[in-house]
């Protein structure tokens, strides 16, 4: 066995030496000319990298998110809170309301629709979602022909009472009563109740006053104006979780643009922006958080770059410092 | 399988001999392949590997990483490998003495880690005292062994600096000051090559005969050592980066930072030999399908994306082609492009094996591939160094040439070089056969 190896080796070496002395190697190496072509191909490939990714790519397609289901869900819940919820349930502890919510729209005659059932509350679906900026509106009956209905005791609410609405998945939003107004049935400030505002309001409407048999309705409407409670503690926590930071140490190192990771929870990745004139930047790459924090550009020194951090809820940080300085 | 491997290794060994043979006809040309330069390179490898493994093991230990034990084992094996090197110069007795001092000093590393973990200040002080003792004892040993060619004070100073490097890398790591940690790592890593230069120069000055009157500090030997340090640091950082990336360790970005700093150093070294244009070309090739692709291997593993893995491997293959071509054309084929590509790819395979073994949780194999891949870089230093020196002999003509030419005149006739080659081949073949016969007889 060993001799076999020995002779194989000796044979091969003899062959190599013969090749060497007959200048075969030199011929081989001289024939390696198509080198230029390969280079050409290469640079076209890296040019492809420079095409900006299409806009509006979903976050989990733009970035690969590793086994972070829990974090992802958490951040999506937070996003939901910011975007608002589709309410399915309401609780008003101080007046013992605990009722389902159904969606209502605008009736043919222009009136806001009301729930069919006396024990349900109607959410004005074409309007604002609870949690969003604006006025969300809920309406409920005060009574039926036979007795009290879901909002019977609404007029007993006091400033500071809590209204809790939740969606199907149990996300809860708490509103607090700010003021209560009664308006004549025919002359309510619709704009104030339904219109736009920077606040996150939830307005509850029911009938009040005396029942006008001629008109078939009560002669006044009670509006309870409430505002979303964003508990301070919860807010702080959220701020910690969503610690929006721009990447640091953005540098051009040879053909690499490099930066340091933002080491907080909830980072999906980074976006690299490039400019040829130092003013107009366009996105050239998305780098997932677990990847090497670098982007390659053959002509890195000729351009300027900044990088942003993108969070799992889609939030994008401010641009980093521009590199090279 | 094993047989093929053995054949390949033997061929490689003889192949490595070929360029030396080719230039054996002219000894007045500078060369990286002298006994003194070989000694320096051996010390380069053993000492720098000691540093890389010591700091890695301490970090792993501090993190309670699963491979901490195997990292320490690799550190100990490195120390054991030093003994035969010492024995070959100073004999078995000195080697045994060396081993006792040196192997024991590796035991202080876990003490520092333990002290940091538990916040035990007394333990830390004790470990520091032990390090001081080691510096004292080993400094004396080196001075005695080299008969004062390496003065005791100088030896102690450089040993103390080395210990400081290890400890400060570790302390910064513990304090999560990663940029400082990797700054200290890089400084400490390169100090080992300074130590190697001082030590090899002292030894070769002490026993000129044993080293055929060659010097360890010629410009050619310096070049070889510089290439050794750049190539081996690349391997050490690549292996570390890939592990830290796979673990998504908080210092990951700083290992990649260290890699970028290393690229800059390598680029500067290339610039000093081939000018800025060559250096820029080097950087492009080095980063794009190489450093990048290395990280893509990690990403593919984390995302369990086989296609991405294939792509990254293809990039690495492309890098081997490009870098081989670069080296071939830079050295004007003194290092043939094809041979360079082959060597570069072999290196990439070692990097991949180290990572794959690590990712698979086979840490013993991971450190085996690590040590193999690490050692391989010194062959690159030698081969590339020799190609460059052969290409531009004037730049590396040392002031001090070997004092005596070999007495046998094997230069002269132009045809003689080939004849000499065949004679050498026959001798090698016969010697090989003799070796085999003896081996068989022994069995």
Q: Could you list some keywords that capture this structure?
A:
heterodimer, A: 325 residues, alpha+beta, Sortase, Chain: A, Immunoglobulin-like, 2 domains, 8-stranded mixed barrel, 3-stranded antiparallel sheet, 7 helices, B: 443 residues, mainly alpha, globular
Set out the fold topology.
The complex is a heterodimer of chains A (325) and B (443).
Chain A: H1 2-21, H2 24-30, H3 35-50, H4 59-62, H5 69-83, E1 89-92, E2 97-104, E3 121-124, E4 134-140, E5 162-166, E6 172-184, H6 190-194, E7 200-212, E8 217-228, H7 232-241, E9 248-253, E10 256-260, E11 267-275, E12 282-288, E13 294-296, E14 304-311
Parallel strand pairs in A: 2-3, 4-7
Antiparallel strand pairs in A: 1-2, 1-5, 3-4, 5-6, 6-8, 7-8, 9-10, 10-13, 11-12, 11-14
Chain B: H1 2-22, H2 35-62, H3 68-105, H4 108-118, H5 121-145, H6 152-174, H7 178-206, H8 219-247, H9 252-303, H10 306-330, H11 337-359, H12 363-391, H13 416-442
Description of the structure:
- The complex is a heterodimer of chains A (325) and B (443).
- Chain A folds into 2 domains: 158 residues, Sortase (Sortase, Chain: A); 82 residues, Sandwich (Immunoglobulin-like).
- The longest helix of chain A has 20 residues.
- Chain A is 24% helix and 32% strand.
- Chain A contains 7 helices and 14 strands.
- By secondary structure, chain A is α+β, with helices and mostly antiparallel strands.
- By secondary structure, chain B is an all-alpha fold.
- Chain B folds into 2 domains: 185 residues, no CATH class; 171 residues.
- Helix content of chain B is 81%, strand content 0%.
- At the A-B interface, α1, α2, α3, β9 and β10 of A face α1, α9, α10 and α13 of B.
């Amino acid at each position: 066995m060993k001799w076999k190896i020995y002779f194989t080796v000796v044979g091969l070496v003899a062959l190599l030496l013969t090749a060497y002395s007959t200048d075969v190697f030199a011929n081989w190496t001289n024939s390696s000319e198509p080198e230029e072509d390969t280079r050409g191909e290469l640079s076209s490939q890296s040019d492809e990298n420079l095409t900006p990714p299409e806009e509006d790519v979903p976050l989990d397609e733009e970035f690969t998110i590793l086994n972070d289901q829990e974090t992802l869900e958490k951040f999506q819940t937070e996003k939901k809170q910011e975007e608002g919820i589709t309410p399915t349930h309401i609780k008003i502890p101080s007046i013992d309301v605990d009722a389902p919510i159904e969606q209502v729209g605008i009736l043919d005659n222009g009136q806001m629709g009301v729930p069919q059932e006396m024990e349900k509350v109607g959410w004005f679906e074409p309007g604002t979602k609870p949690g969003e900026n604006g006025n969300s509106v809920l309406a409920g009956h005060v009574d039926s022909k036979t007795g009290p209905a879901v909002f019977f005791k609404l007029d007993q609410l006091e400033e500071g009472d809590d209204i809790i609405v939740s969606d199907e998945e149990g996300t809860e939003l708490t509103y607090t009563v700010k003021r209560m107004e009664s308006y004549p049935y025919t002359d309510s400030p619709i704009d104030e109740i339904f219109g736009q505002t920077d606040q996150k309001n939830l307005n509850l409407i029911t009938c009040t006053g005396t029942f006008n048999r001629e008109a078939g309705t009560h002669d006044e409407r009670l509006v309870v104006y409430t505002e979303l409670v964003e508990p301070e503690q919860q807010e702080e926590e959220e701020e910690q979780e969503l610690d929006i930071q721009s990447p640091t140490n953005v540098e051009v190192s040879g053909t690499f643009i490099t930066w340091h990771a933002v080491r907080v929870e909830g980072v999906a990745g980074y976006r690299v922006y490039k400019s040829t004139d130092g003013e107009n930047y366009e996105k050239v790459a998305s780098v997932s958080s677990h990847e090497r924090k670098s982007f390659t550009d053959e002509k890195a020194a000729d351009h300027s770059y900044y990088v942003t951090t993108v969070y799992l809820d889609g939030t994008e940080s401010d641009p980093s410092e521009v590199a090279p300085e | 399988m094993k047989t093929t491997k053995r054949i390949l290794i033997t061929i490689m060994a003889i192949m490595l001999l070929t360029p030396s043979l080719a230039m054996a006809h002219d000894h007045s040309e500078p060369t990286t392949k002298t006994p003194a330069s070989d000694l320096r390179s051996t010390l380069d490898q053993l000492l720098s590997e000691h540093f890389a493994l010591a700091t890695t093991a301490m970090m792993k230990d501090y993190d309670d990483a699963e491979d901490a034990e195997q990292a320490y084992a690799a550190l100990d094996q490195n120390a054991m490998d030093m003994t035969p090197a010492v024995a070959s110069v100073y004999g078995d007795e000195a080697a045994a003495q060396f081993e006792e001092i040196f192997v024991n000093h590796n035991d202080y590393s876990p003490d520092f880690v333990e002290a940091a973990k538990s916040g035990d200040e007394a333990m830390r002080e004790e470990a520091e005292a032990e390090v001081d003792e080691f510096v004292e004892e080993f400094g004396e040993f080196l001075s005695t062994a080299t008969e004062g060619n390496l003065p005791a004070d100088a030896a102690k100073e450089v040993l103390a600096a080395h210990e400081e490097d290890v400890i400060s890398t570790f302390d910064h790591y513990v304090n999560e000051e990663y940029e400082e940690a990797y700054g200290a790592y890089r400084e400490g890593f390169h100090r080992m090559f300074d130590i190697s230069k001082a030590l090899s120069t002292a030894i070769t000055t002490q026993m000129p005969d044993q080293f055929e009157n060659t010097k360890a500090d010629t410009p050619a030997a310096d070049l070889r050592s510089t290439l050794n340090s750049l190539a081996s640091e690349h391997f050490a950082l690549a292996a570390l980066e890939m592990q830290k990336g796979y673990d998504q360790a908080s210092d990951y970005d700083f290992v990649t930072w260290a890699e970028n700093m290393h690229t800059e150093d390598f680029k500067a070294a290339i610039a000093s030999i081939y000018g800025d244009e060559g250096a820029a070309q080097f950087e492009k090739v080095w980063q794009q399908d190489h450093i990048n692709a290395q990280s893509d291997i990690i990403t593919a593993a984390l995302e369990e994306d086989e296609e991405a893995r294939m792509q990254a491997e293809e990039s690495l293959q492309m890098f081997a082609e490009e870098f081989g071509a670069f080296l071939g054309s830079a050295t004007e084929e003194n290092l043939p492009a094809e041979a360079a590509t082959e060597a570069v790819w072999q290196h990439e395979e070692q990097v991949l094996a180290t990572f794959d073994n690590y990712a698979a949780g086979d840490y013993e194999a991971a450190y085996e591939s690590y040590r193999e891949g690490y050692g391989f870089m010194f062959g690159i230093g030698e081969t590339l160094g020799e190609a460059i020196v052969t290409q531009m002999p004037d730049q590396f003509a040392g002031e001090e040439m070997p004092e005596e030419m070999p007495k046998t005149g094997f230069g002269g006739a132009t045809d003689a070089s080939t004849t000499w080659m065949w004679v050498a081949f026959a001798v090698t073949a016969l010697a090989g056969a003799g070796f085999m016969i003896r081996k068989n007889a022994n069995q």
